[in-house]
User: What shape does this take?
Amino acid sequence: MANRSVLPDDYVCVAVDIPNDIPISSFSDSELPPDWWVYPHPESSRAFGTNWANSLVSAVMVVPFSIIRKEHNYILNPAHADFARIAFSSPEPFMFDRRLLGTSG
Assistant: This one.
């Protein structure tokens, strides 16, 4: 279980609406550096992301989530022209479910 003392209480949740006509760069784990999932994140992963961002090929990159590999992370590139077309909701407080924290009630 997670340790409550290391989880901040100021998390927020924001919905993101990406228009269907915005190109998305998608990478499978086999297309990423061989150590992409390691923690702390190796220089190879940071370089991969930096190269993608600097290339300006897309405003959105989808990569596998290193903890749950069947899930994905969407990385947004604010330097890309299409980024301005992505809509964000107002931030709302996010609270961890107490069951994940090992506490009751």
About this structure: The two ends are 16 Å apart (CA to CA). The chain has one domain: 17-96.
